[in-house]
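SEQUENCE-TO-STRUCTURE ENTRY
===========================
Question of interest: how does this chain fold, as expressed in backbone structure tokens?
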Amino acid sequence: MAKSTMKRGCSQRFRDFGKALHALLYLKPGIMDILPGGSDTWIAGGCGVLGHALHEWLGPKSSMWAMFDSRGHAIQHIVVRVRNCYFDGDGAASKDELLKLWREEEGRYKAYLRRFQAEEIGGIECPFDSIRDLFTALEEEFGSADELLDWMLK
């Protein structure tokens, strides 16, 4: 059987977009005002809004994924996947990098990812206004998602 030629993880272009996304989320004046009430960051409480807005903006070449751990069935975090790269408020990471972060730094030793199911959203707040406002900010900052994806996927 022939080996896959597709790279595992994130290419440099994906990582460059991840850095630009992180900069938008934390450095653009007023962007933190989009976070739902009670959310501290795009990682702690804002991941649902970011996941929905980013997935909607990127379109069908992306998918939403949820982080779980064995302590319960509640979603711990939401990320957006394009090919083998996952995006969240920290930028871009491979699956292994993301799981290592959650296992080692967040103390979620049995963390795992699976495709997001809307009915499992639980306590993650995702107000429509926040999703719409972040979608608009993504569009204003980066322009056409199709053009960005064409560049990233080259």
